[in-house]
Amino acid sequence: MKGRDLLTLIDYTPAEIEEIIDFGIEVKRNPEKYYDSLKHKTLAMLFAKTSTRTRTSFEAGMTQLGGHAIFLDWRTTNLTKGRLEEEIRCIDRYVDIIMARVYKHEEIQAIAQAAEKPVINALCNLFHPCQALADLMTIKEHKGRTSGLKIAYVGDGNNVCNSLMVCGAKLGAKISIGTPKGYEPLERAVEEARKYAEVNLYNTAEEAVKDADVVYTDTWVSMGQEAETEKRLKIFPPFQLNMKLLKLAKPDALVMHCLPAHIGQEITADVIYSKNSVIFDQAENRMHVQKALMLKLLGKA
Predict the structure, then answer these.
(1) Which CATH number does 14-127+283-297 carry?
(2) Residues identified as active-site
(3) Which secondary-structure segment (H or E) carries 69?
């Protein structure tokens, strides 16, 4: 029978999300307890998009759990030559779990449909659930809680924004989003988040960031949007996360960015390296929370 997938966090309950995050904190604190937990297990890593953190965190994480990861680049395999369904059905016979970093959400859905093994969405155009789990884990580590906090996101209402909003709201945070008009987050994600917490959408960064406990931003031009670069670079400058904007948040507000960062565009160097920044903790926590996720999906928690 088909096991559990992680395609979006919309399908996960608040309790399930909190359980993964708390387990991620446990795995981070006591890594030696889990060194052989996935011994003789294999992870297939499918990449249509380039990656630094996703590949490194999953591959290193699987190794630390005693398992093995296979890197498959779509451009150097037959994933684009035949139908995706047949290719995935073959890969599924060889491995125990699959993660994929793709362009379209329909692609990750097709992979999950074809596979019998658990499938993890490591990024698509609509969602980035693993990033959101790492983000909320980082917030909980630094703030001791997620419930009641104000999480502000400024910039493009993209896949990172969608997953952060859903994950944060399900864990009791108040969500505040500031985007230019026409660049708001996915309506489906907004509707889901509003079932659990207050979600406010603004068209200025200042309104969104006021009195925030966490201030988050991401690139203005995601992979696949390169043709829009010139247009976006004219629209988004008022949403830059700089020291002036950060001063509108609480003095101890956390600064977050999923990386890679474009210094001088969506964020300034002094903010990245400020005392408020937890950006590199976020990056590290991708590995820990993904280890927890894989252990749970494979019944080894």
Answers:
(1) 3.40.50.1370
(2) 101, 128, 131, 218, 258, 286
(3) strand 68-73
